[in-house]
Amino acid sequence: MQSFKKKRAVEDMVNKSIEIDRAKIQVGRISRFGLLEMSRQRLRPSLEERWTQDISSLSTAVLRLIEEESSKKMSGEVRAIVSSDMSVFLLNERRGRINEIEERTNVRVVIVSDPSRADNRFEVTRIKKNEKSSQKSSYEIQENLNEDTKLEYKTSKQEKAAVNIKPPKKPKKKGKGFIRKIIETLTGEENKNKIKRRLHLNQTKERGNSPINPVPIKNLNLEI
To answer: Which pairs from 82-85 meet CB under 8 Å and 24+ separation?
Structure first.
């Protein structure tokens, strides 16, 4: 690391490698001892922080909305659609507050439990006296909610393409001419005869050289 060119090459490679990083990075020069100083600072934390309210604090917000809607004129009924845990908390721990609102405003308060909802997802609706046809019980309202929240799965039909692209037709093979057919028939018979002759010669050679059919050896009278 004594040459200046090699130091510059290392620094350039480090700078290229940190281009992808989103943090704030500062890179120094390589010292005479071969040390490279680098500082890195995050622009934002790696983990997100969130705050959620518990049921007791959310229940106060629900009761305020119920009281606000029931204090309006021509209010016949107030419905609060909340989660199952929230409904249990309201009907047990906050029952006295609900009874107090009903006695003061002379409005019916209905707590409907919806298990598909989260604790922070609640809905308070007001029904006027002229719109109030019959007093439904809470389980009947819950059945209507379950029917509305059912998912309908529809089979998607395959639509035709806007532009019909047909594959190109294969080119037809050109037929052989009359003269070419005559030449092929004449030359074909000669070639067939030649091939048959060659096969016959090869078979005879193989039979002569095969160990299965040995060549007979004649008795020779040797005189000493």
So the answer is: 82/111, 82/112, 82/113, 82/114, 82/117, 82/119, 82/122, 82/123, 83/113, 83/114, 83/115, 83/117, 83/118, 83/119, 83/121, 83/122, 84/113, 84/114, 84/115, 85/55, 85/119
Which of the two residues, 177 and 112, has the higher pLDDT score? 112
Q: pLDDT higher for 195 or 93?
A: 93
Asked if residue 122 has pLDDT above 50, the reply is: yes
Report pTM.
Answer: 0.43
Question: What is the set of domains in the chain, with CATH numbers?
Answer: 4-41 (no CATH), 55-129+141-146 (3.40.1260.20)
| Distance from C-alpha of 16 to C-alpha of 168, rounded to nearest angstrom | 50
